[in-house]
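Lab notebook, bench 4. Still working through the backlog of constructs that have no structural model yet. Next entry is a single chain of 199 residues. Request: give me the structure tokens for it.
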Amino acid sequence: MSDAKPDTKAKKEKYFGSVKFFKNMITIFIILLIAGLIAVVVYLWYNQNSVPIGDGNQLVILEGPPDGDGRGILVTPENVDSFLNEVPTDTHVTVSLSFEWDFDTWDSPTANGFVANDEENSRVFYVDIHLLDPAAEEELGELIYSSPYIPIGARLANFALDKELAAGNYEVIIVHKLVDDEFNFITDTRVVSNFRIHN
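Model written out:
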């Protein structure tokens, strides 16, 4: 019995200093790292709709009216919370876009602006970008850009404006126009953003 204890101690010392011990530690570390990454991805996916609007580059759930004349709803940082818990319909759209856009000049591609059609959507859309004009009916001012159709899962970026604008800051309305399978207009959803033209 007295000989067994020193043998056990020696075996432990030999194991902790061995290559096998370090291999086991590396394996455990990799397993913990993978589990941590999976937990982060699940957390971000589960909480993607709780990010406040207005900081840019985020998913925002927007809801157009399911019936009526197809007129959309203006979505701003102040009223977006009222749309987050709406029951999805065929005109439901999740939009990923920038809320702050920078252009070196009006005819040079935007440095950081984009609009994406989320993979969870069921509709193709395109965007018309208007200057915000509080004096105009529906607040839609001059059209400064009209995009091609944006398929589900696609991202539109690196584009210039269609209309010449002087250097300055502009408040714009980005109108997302949903279309059916034959590309007929269904409804639209509107988001206010800010454009900065530097030269």
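Notes after review: Strands lie at 58-63, 74-75, 92-97, 100-103, 114-117, 124-132, 140-146, 155-157, 168-179, 185-197. The longest strand covers residues 185-197. Flag for follow-up if needed.
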